[in-house]
């Protein structure tokens, strides 16, 4: 089974939630840090989140900056979290947003599709051109790995460049069309290929056109939760509640902070936050 078909199946069975394990040391209760290294505290926190949510979460996303910022200790937590997900037969995204060409890109591919930091999917930045994407193609062709490439991101600064007109059309559509050509070479049984897009749900006027135009591309959808994206926008980016995963990071990781007994029930409140994410989006089905 191709990895993209497996992701489709996970969404079908568990729902479209993606839990972002963007774990800052500051998110961890003080009592959970006592007598522990940074590595141990972060990994144990992640493990509690995973154990409480794995049956309702399609895939987990680790933003690597949160681990790199703690040096070797952080990267040990990154490694061990990915290993734990693999041990439990769960899918992962390494949110690394790499952008380089030739031999350097090949080494990034090797670093994150093999070895200590191996993930099922990684995120890429395409703005150096298609030769920054092509070095990953051997992994895509194998059917065992996939990528989510930045297309229309959720941050306000996205409008600085992504919507600039070229030949009468926004730049992000030009980028998407190029990547769609690559994706179509490897479309699986689910109807989707391994080249997915990062599509923010904060751009109300564009979501329907993006979904319609890129029908064979799976979406990683940020912006819901802390960034305040409208749940209807999210629903429009999905395709019959599949074809995309909806990331929620801080809303899940910090959910326990809203309750007096939160520090003793991190997993419980994380689970409730995942279920709430799904509920908030599914309420748009009849609209």
TrEMBL record:
Residues 16-265 form the Orotidine 5'-phosphate decarboxylase domain. It is an enzyme of class 4 (lyase). InterPro entries: Aldolase_TIM, OMPdecase_type-2, OMPdeCOase_dom, RibuloseP-bd_barrel. The keyword Lyase applies. Keywords: Decarboxylase, Lyase, Pyrimidine biosynthesis. Pathway: Pyrimidine metabolism; UMP biosynthesis via de novo pathway; UMP from orotate: step 2/2. Its EC number is 4.1.1.23. The active site is at residue 97. GO terms for molecular function: orotidine-5'-phosphate decarboxylase activity. Coiled coil: none annotated. It comes from the Bacteria. SMART domains: OMPdecase. It catalyses: orotidine 5'-phosphate + H(+) = UMP + CO2. HAMAP family: OMPdecase_type2. Belongs to the OMP decarboxylase family. Type 2 subfamily. This is Orotidine 5'-phosphate decarboxylase.
């Amino acid at each position: 089974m191709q990895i993209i078909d497996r992701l489709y199946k996970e969404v079908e069975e568990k729902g479209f939630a993606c839990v972002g394990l963007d774990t800052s040391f500051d998110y961890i209760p003080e009592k959970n840090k006592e007598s522990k290294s940074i590595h141990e505290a972060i990994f144990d926190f992640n493990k509690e989140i995973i154990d409480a949510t794995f049956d309702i979460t399609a895939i987990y996303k680790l933003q690597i900056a949160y681990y790199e910022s703690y040096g070797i200790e952080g990267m040990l937590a990154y490694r061990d979290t990915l290993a734990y997900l693999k041990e439990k037969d769960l899918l992962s995204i390494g949110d690394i947003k790499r952008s380089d060409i030739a031999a350097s890109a090949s080494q990034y591919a090797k670093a994150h599709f093999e070895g200590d930091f191996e993930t099922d999917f990684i995120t890429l930045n395409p703005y150096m051109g298609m030769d920054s994407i092509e070095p990953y193609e051997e992994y895509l062709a194998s059917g065992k790995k996939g990528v989510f490439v930045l297309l229309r991101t959720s941050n306000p600064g996205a409008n600085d460049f992504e919507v600039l007109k070229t030949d009468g059309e926004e730049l992000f559509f030009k980028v998407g069309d190029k990547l769609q050509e690559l994706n179509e070479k490897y479309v699986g049984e689910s109807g989707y290929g391994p080249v997915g897009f990062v599509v923010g749900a904060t751009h109300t006027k564009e979501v329907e056109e993006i979904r319609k135009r890129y029908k064979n591309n799976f979406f990683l959808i940020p912006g819901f939760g802390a960034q305040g994206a409208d749940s209807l926008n999210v629903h429009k980016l999905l395709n019959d509640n599949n074809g995309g995963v909806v990331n929620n990071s801080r809303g899940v990781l910090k959910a326990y902070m809203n309750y007096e007994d939160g520090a003793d029930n991190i997993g419980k409140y994380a689970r409730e936050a995942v279920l709430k994410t799904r509920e908030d989006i599914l309420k748009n089905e009849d609209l």
